[in-house]
Structure formats: C-alpha cells, structure tokens
Amino acid sequence: MSMLSFMPAHGLPLQPQEQRWLVTDLWSEHAVGIVGGQPKSFKTFLALDLAVSVASGTPCLRRFPVSRPGRVLLYAAEDSLDIVRQRLEGICAAAGVKLAELDILVITEPSIRLDIEAVRRRLDETIAKLRPRLLVLDPFVRLHRIDENASGDVAPLLAHLRELQRRYAVAVLVVHHAKKGAERARGGQALRGSSEFHAWGDSNLYLHRQRDDTLILTVEHRAAPSPPALTLELAKQAHAVALQIIEHATSSTKTPAVSVDERIIDALADSAHALPFDELRALCRTRSATVYQHLDVLVAAGRIVKSHNGYRLCE
C-alpha cells in the first residue's frame, strides 16, 4: 500500500494577498455558496441580478462592480422559461443592458438530479464544454430526492459541486430556503437542513424579511470581511422589475441611523453582561421604536446576539 502524498509546509504555494472577486464585495472569484432566505424574500431575483451582472459586466444591484465578465449557466427549476426570461428582461432594463447581447445560457432540462450519477456526469460534460464563469442552480430542493437533514446525504452532492468549481474554475451559486421558524436565527444558521450547507459556502448571501416587511441583505465570506447589511426592495420602473438598494437619507434635523448603531454597539461593548432592552434604550437615549429597528438590523447582520437575558455583542 502506497503512502499519501505530502510536502514540507514551507514548500506550499503562496497565494496572492489581494482578494479576487467575481462580484466585488458580494461573491469571491470561483466561490461556491448559498443565496438563502425565507419564502418570498426574492432569492431568485438576487441570483438573477448576479447572473446579469457577471454576464454584462455591470454592477450588481447597481452598486457592486464586476471586473471580469463572462458566461453564465443557469438552471431555474421552479419557474417556467417565460417567467425566467421576463425576470431577466426586467433586471437587464434596470441595468441598462439588452438580454439578447448577454452570454447567459439557460438549461432547459425538465429536471436535474444531482443524486444520480449519470446526471452528474452530464452536468460535468456541459460545464466542461461551455466553460461558464458562474453556475446558478435554483433551488437546491429541486436538485435531488435525498434527506436534506442528513449530513451523509447532503455532503456528497455539495462535494460534487465543489469538485466542479475546482476542476473548471467556475463559481457556483445555489439558491436554498431557510427553515420554518428561523426568523431570528443568524444567517447560515437559518438555512434549512444539514449544517453542511453553511459550512460549504465561500460566499453566502442571506435575505431576511423583518416583521415590518423590510428586506435585509447580509453577506458572509470565508476569506474576506463582510460589507455592512443592506436594505433592499423589489421596485418597478417602467418595464424594469428588479431589486434595488434603499438609501437611507439623513439630515441635520435627524439623528443619522449609523449614530444609533454606534450607541448600541458602544453600550454593549461597555457592559460585562447582556443588556435588557429597557436598559439599552435608556443608554442610547432614543425612542423604543428606533432602538428596536436598529437592533433587528444588527442582529440580522450578525453583529449582536439576542438572548433571554437581553442583547450582547457577537464574540
């Protein structure tokens, strides 16, 4: 029996220190990951926005640049082909580009089963021939008939997608649902099924709809800092229906939202224990509704944690 291959640690190849992005600040180059969230949180719209951006070289959500555009391969299992085209056309209109000019290829198979070896081979051959920069699979639940709660079932499917990423230098984006009753869970902890999903991703985007119907996007990277959480809305302008970032305007007569965040963070940093809401509100010197709003955003962004004792900073 032969030994496993090995080499001295000092002989390992050096990687450049500069972070390389497929979509700056949102998706690392060649990353695998999840776009996750509750039902009706516009996960598909976000995935398609990324697809249009990568194919066109235009900024995702009209803010996050793409420096090296390329081909996108898309499989949308839950929407009819005409709906997929309609949504792509709307996002293209918002981005100021024409769908007919973009290198987006849509898989039209009635189903793709990653738990079947023959289907995995066909997907492998398709990627080998088409060489996309981004593969979008939407959603994961339609790609198999396994038990998503069983790590032993989920891990091989995710491992195959990781193998495709490494073999063909393709970024892989999988849309996945959040579990029921996880409205207060943090990011990847809210994903349905095995913890393998959260552990697998290099770049993950989480959409969270709050009780007041505000839609929050949080970003998580394995090897890069995460940008601040964003507030999004699905907006319609003429024929363009697409997600857009809500800019929070401030004025000299109003306390900027960031200052409330700073008051909350500073109060928690100065405390050796979790702070109940009433104590925290008094320290922030801000009305209850405003403090509740900013606490929800900070919890969704993973900066603070809510427990039965109150609020505290994430460790």
Indicate the topology.
Elements: E1 21-23, E2 27-28, E3 32-37, H1 43-56, E4 72-76, H2 81-95, E5 104-106, H3 117-130, E6 134-138, H4 151-168, E7 171-177, H5 196-200, E8 203-209, E9 215-221, E10 230-237, E11 240-245, H6 257-269, H7 277-284, H8 288-300, E12 304-307, E13 310-313
Parallel strand pairs: 3-7, 3-8, 4-5, 4-6, 6-7
Antiparallel strand pairs: 1-2, 8-9, 9-10, 10-11, 12-13
Helix pairs in contact: 1-2, 6-7, 6-8
Question: What is this structure, in a nutshell?
Answer:
The protein is 32% helix and 21% strand. A hairpin with a 2-residue loop joins strand 12 and strand 13. With 315 residues, the protein is of the alpha/beta class.
Q: How would you portray this structure in words?
A:
The chain is of the alpha/beta class and 315 residues long. It has 2 domains: 19-245, 3-Layer(aba) Sandwich (Rossmann fold); 257-313, Arc Repressor Mutant, subunit A. The chain is 32% helix and 21% strand. It has helices at 43-56, 81-95, 117-130, 151-168, 196-200, 257-269, 277-284, 288-300; strands at 21-23, 27-28, 32-37, 72-76, 104-106, 134-138, 171-177, 203-209, 215-221, 230-237, 240-245, 304-307, 310-313. The strands form 3 sheets. A 9-stranded mixed beta sheet has the order 5-4-6-7-3-8-9-10-11, with helices on both faces. A two-stranded antiparallel sheet has the order 1-2. A two-stranded antiparallel ribbon has the order 12-13. β9 and β10 form a beta hairpin. α1 (43-56) crosses α2 (81-95), α6 (257-269) crosses α7 (277-284) and α6 (257-269) crosses α8. The longest helix is centred in the middle third of the chain and has 18 residues, at 151-168. The protein starts with 20 loop residues before the first strand and ends with a strand. Residues 250-258 have low confidence and may be disordered.
